[in-house]
Amino acid sequence: MTVRLHAADGFELPAYVAHPKGAPKGAIVVVQEIFGVNAHIREVADGYAAQGYLAVAPATFHRAKHGVELGYTADDMQAGMVLKTAVDGMPAPGVMADIQAAVDYAAKMSGGKVGIVGYCWGGLLTWRAAEMVTGLSAAVPYYGGGSTTDEEIARHPHCPVLAHYAEQDHWIPLDTVEKFKHAHPEVEVHLYPADHGFNCDHRGAYQEESAKLALRRTLAFFAKHVG
User: Fold this and answer.
1) Residue segments in the chain with a per-residue pLDDT below the cut of 50
2) Which of 57, 83, 110, 194 could serve as 207's disulfide partner, Cβ 3.0–4.6 Å?
């Protein structure tokens, strides 16, 4: 189902919501890649709902363009990068206000703790949310592009963080991942023999073994910190 979220600045945006069969044991906010809240992201949210969580996937491109749902072609990649640049360039708090709205909604509707997981650009936003968004009990960024720059490494998360990176990721150099690990010994960091986007079974970079292992670790992390 789709709901409307209301950010603190009055902005309204849609979010895909997946409900568990019974009472939720907590909630997970799912933050999209640069391809919108597409079929893959909806499937990810459905997967967390199947694990007993209320899952909320906000449309984090909505401030730049409505109804974005891209595939994984080169043209889609280019379109997504343009939208990402537009949203990232907005005055603060920008998209973080939308993620805060999703967290607030998730907490209210689930009656429990809230975790956040994000992929690619969503991974970067998840890392930022761990510092900037209130009400989070855990954060899991997957291969957050840009999360290992000096500016992002300087952040101080206010909730437990589990971070997944890929050894063959040409977007995130391994030496910067090591720098991130050194700066944040409190963060649980895992590396996988895979490429950027290894969790997404809609794209060629999908690496089933790594995706399954990362998900097992993520579910265990959320079970510990969210419920």
Assistant:
1) none
2) 194
